[in-house]
Design goal:
The chain has a single domain, classed as Rossmann fold (3-Layer(aba) Sandwich). It is about 40% helix and about 20% strand. It has five helices and five strands, in the order E-H-E-H-E-H-E-H-E-H. Helix 1 links the parallel strand 1 and strand 2.
Length: about 120
């Protein structure tokens, strides 16, 4: 079973993401982190198959987490999808340049979520 790391400082948003997976009937287990710092610890402690990452968080932002993870060879192929309310084109470009696999703008629609998840064949 695949393990998905859901990183968002909002518990409600983490639950929405998990519920969307349940609606899509994608079997996986979830690990949660409330900020980028917690997410780094989770990543070091277990095998993660996909990261769903918010941008704006305390302690370590999603973008800083992304840059840190992409600087490490062992995580070069780890799919990381930004799930954020940062919808400006320059934010999307910055995240993709930093190594994001894809980008989903909140509020998350099940269709766009399904399309992005299917592209990485979880």
């Amino acid at each position: 079973m695949k393990t998905v790391l859901v990183v968002d400082d909002s518990r409600i948003m983490r639950n929405i993401v998990k519920n969307t997976f349940a609606l899509m009937k994608i079997p996986c287990q979830f690990v949660e982190a409330a900020n980028g710092q917690d997410a780094l610890l989770q990543l070091q402690n277990q095998k993660i198959d996909l990261v769903l990452l918010d941008w704006n968080m305390p302690q370590l932002s999603g973008l800083d987490f992304l840059k840190h993870v992409r600087s490490q060879v062992e995580y070069a192929k780890l799919p990381i999808i930004m799930v954020t309310s940062e919808a400006a084109r320059y934010n999307v470009i910055e995240a993709l340049k930093a190594g994001a696999t894809d980008y989903i703008v909140k509020p998350v629609s099940e269709k766009s979520f399904r399309d992005k998840i299917q592209r990485i064949s979880l």
